[in-house]
Predict the structure.
Amino acid sequence: MGDTLEDRTLEHHTLEHRIKATVYGLGFDLCGIAALGPADTSEQFDAWLAAGYHGEMGYLARRRPLTGYSHAIVVTLDYGGKSPDAPVARYARGRDYHDVMIERLLQLHLWLERETGRTIAAKPYVDTGPILERDLARRAGLGWFGKNTMLINPKLGSFFFIGALLVDLELKTDSPFEAERCGTCTRCLEACPTDAFVAPGVMDARRCISYLTIELKGAIPEDLRSRIGNHVYGCDVCQDVCPWNVRFAQELQDAALAPRQEIDAAEMLALDDAGFRERYRGTAVTRAKRHGLARNAAVVLGNRGDKRALPVLERAATQDPEPLVREHAAWAAERVRATASR
């Protein structure tokens, strides 16, 4: 027997429905509710860690049981998959998404307390805590894990951030997303410049350009430098080629994530600490630190092979205060000279 008009009217007045309406009003694009509990992918994640695929990201192993909360309100925020390709990955071109999303999740918490008339224990998480957000998002019905390890939504693709507000509040949960809709497609695996995927859905982060340009603190392995191409910070290749993004990626709508004016790799390499802090304050790029961004910029200039970059590379190779930057600048300068002599 189908729902009556009265049933549908009551549904629209449930707390869960009002939560989602508020979430969308705050500017988020998707929302689902999931019960907390052991992550569905815990065994696979532990095996991934045991294989060493996390590289230097030791913090990923520091998961702990979450106590004091029963449910998660899971949200996503689109960051504009149709924006033009550039040396800095799309997600990092504007204001730091952690700040943007946590501010809004805190607003959701305040609204929830006002709406229920009581104090509610809650905690926002955006890519910084001991939880597997992708797992929660799939459990909340927001998408499936693609072969490139990204969460893919059938109406939006994958160019979005995932966040969650953990709450001590009994809520009706959404049905998990059970389907896997990649089919036989392997475009993301084949397109990866550094061959970072050891199997569908399994990435060796130590070979991923995002890891190499952001998380890796030391020298980029020489055999991977040429494969980094024009990527100074992060990489979108495996998302760009995904048919779900080709069809459904969105233009950037959220003004809070509006990109700042980009500067060239040569200008990045020439920045001192003060210039780096001033230029990238409040953005996700600060995670790489000045020496990390300069290291990456040197590699990109070497890959471009443009001899006009030689003066800035030679200056960095001899005068930069960081040995890491000097080494990569020297490598890049030699690569440019070799390209120019052909």
Observations:
- The longest strand covers residues 71-78.
- Residues 36 and 323 are 46 Å apart (CA to CA).
- The longest helix spans residues 97-116.
- The mean pLDDT is 95.
